[in-house]
Amino acid sequence: MSAKPFLTTASALLRPTAGEADADLLARFVATRDEAAFSALVSRHGPTVWDVCRSILGNRADADDAFQAVFLLLVRRAGRLRMPGSVGAWLHGVAVRVARKARVSAARRREKEAGVPPPAASDPPDPSWAEVRAAVHEALAALPAAYREPLVLCYLRGLTRDATAAELGLSPAALKKRLERARGRLRAALVRGGFGPAILLAVDAVPTCAVPPRLLEAASRLVAGGAIPASVLRLAEGAFPMTFGKLAVVVAVTLGVAPK
């Protein structure tokens, strides 16, 4: 890659944005297409989006495309977010939806390439850690926004209770009640999916995936309007309308085995 795009991205990332709230960064981006604000959002929420894509897809190339498609959708729909302070929860939900779409497309493509569908297993094996993480992400994305948002902010993004309450416009007492209800709903969904406490707690041994720097840079450059891979565009198209690491912490508090 040439020096110019790299220096543009580096310059944007070095501008002061670390202390700004998501809503402020989003407002700056919507108003002026500020690349520094968008890059800050990519850096802040990229690890969660990447973990969703890797967990649901597994295949690295498919996950790369899904990751970029999620942030392309943010570029396109930033001005339409109903609750700008909930960017993290919105991105998490979009990531799950895009990754599901990519999973279906990849399965069809590989079936076509192979000529015959793979035989169905008579006894499904125990789920891998990636499958457990994917199940948590999908169950979390299926929660109503009021319950999904505090879980994403507290346990995926890692905000304090006070910061989460401020971001959502709630009192600390109201946030505590909402988190308790959200954990209960998530716990019930995971149990219905066949994931018991023992296997879910084992997610604690699996580190959160770090986003490859090249992907952070590629996503940050989406705002510039350059050439976008066709595979990324296909995933972004039709992703709406929609009803919408640190996963171990989500699981632990959901199961009532971590401090609240």
UniProtKB/TrEMBL annotation:
Swiss-Prot/TrEMBL keywords: Sigma factor, Transcription, Transcription regulation
Domain RNA polymerase sigma factor 70 region 4 type, chain residue ranges per copy: 134-186
Annotated GO biological process: DNA-templated transcription initiation
Biased composition (Pro residues): 116-127
One Pfam family it belongs to: Sigma70_r4_2
GO molecular function: DNA binding; sigma factor activity
SUPFAM superfamilies: Sigma2 domain of RNA polymerase sigma factors, Sigma3 and sigma4 domains of RNA polymerase sigma factors
InterPro entries reported for this sequence: RNA_pol_sigma-70-like (IPR039425), RNA_pol_sigma-70_dom (IPR014284), RNA_pol_sigma70_r2 (IPR007627), RNA_pol_sigma70_r4_t2 (IPR013249), RNA_pol_sigma_r2 (IPR013325), RNA_pol_sigma_r3/r4-like (IPR013324), WH-like_DNA-bd_sf (IPR036388)
Region described as Disordered: spans on this chain: 108-128
Coiled coil: none
Domain RNA polymerase sigma-70 region positions: 41-108
PANTHER family for the chain: RNA POLYMERASE ECF-TYPE SIGMA FACTO, RNA POLYMERASE SIGMA FACTOR
Family: Belongs to the sigma-70 factor family. ECF subfamily.
Identification of the protein by name: High-affnity carbon uptake protein Hat/HatR
Organism: Fimbriiglobus ruber
